[in-house]
Amino acid sequence: MYWSHHLVAQSDTSLLISSLEVFQRKFLFWVEVLSVMGKVNLASSIILRIFTSKTMVRDNIQRLDTFLYDASSFIVSCREVIELSAPHVYLSALPSVHRTSTIAECFWPEFRNIPVLDVQGIQRRQNALLRMQGHTDYVNSVAFSIDGSWIVSGSDDCTIRVWDARTGESMLDPFQGHTGHVNSVAFSGDGTRIVSGSNDRTIRVTGEPLLKQLENHSQLVNSVSFPPDGSQIVSSSADSTGSGINDPRDIFSLDRRDGWIKGPRGELVLWVPAEYRSYLWWPRNTLLIGRSRVIYDLSRFAHGTRWAECYAAA
User: Fold this and answer.
1) pTM, rounded to two decimals
2) Where do the domains of the chain lie?
3) Which CATH number is correct for 139-245, 2.40.440.10, 2.60.40.4070, 2.60.40.3080, 2.130.10.10?
4) Tens of pLDDT along 103-144?
5) Which windows of the sequence hold WD repeats (predicted)?
6) Residue 185 near residue 164, CB atoms below 8 Å
7) Which of 17, 126, 188, 195 has a beta carbon 3.0–4.6 Å from 230's, enabling a disulfide?
8) What are the residues facing 182 on neighbouring strands?
9) Which helix (DSSP H) or strand (DSSP E) does residue 245 occupy?
10) Cβ-based neighbours of 64, under 8 Å, separated by 6 or more
């Protein structure tokens, strides 16, 4: 799995070329092994790592560039069958590539006992750059993070997924919680939060884990979005209303190194002594098991601009 890391570290162009020529000859066997191991999802990222290596970019090795591009297209367009059956790397995937592909040029002459496609009157569709699979129902909404490195998707299967925009790999377990179809998703400007709107009439602000669930609409939520500064959420609904919802970052976090509970912008809210930090019952905890626990009752806590009200003589 890690040979590509060693390869891209090479600055010797001749060694890189000879290694890639071996890889080109053994490419289908490598794909077969990934299929058997259940690691086909790694193939695109491995190829991309080589394709974008400093030596490849610097020396512009056109012949190998073309091969790597076609290899990635082969993986993406045939991923479904490759993942399902190793023999069908050769029996189904290989016959399906376009005759001008370097994959066809390299391997069709060697694999003569495979089906031959005779296609007339049909323009072969252009291969998708990426194909992402994981949702179990219709996908209603997708959005890029502002830096283009992530893709978020929302589906009728009531889940939200985050993908690597370069490789198409799923980066996190699906976010669950909506009880209706997810109609709209969007990233915050800093890429740390995802807002989603659903048929269940709720808006959820998700980081890791759920930050907030908002219930401002009386009917399904059609669309949600963050403004550039991320200070509000804008939404529209089938109830014919739109709303601007205040800062979803209004949550606290505990820095266990220095013991400070901090607000959404790093403001110092409360300090927890070192001996208490490991036993603190945090609002996101569903259960704390052990002989000791620490719970802060903040119902009368005067903080922020009201800090002076902490003094209340009897």
Assistant:
1) 0.47
2) 3-107, 139-245, 253-310
3) 2.130.10.10
4) 999 888 888 888 876 555 445 444 555 677 889 888 999 998
5) 132-173, 175-205, 214-241
6) no
7) 188
8) 198
9) strand 242-245
10) 17, 20, 21, 24, 56
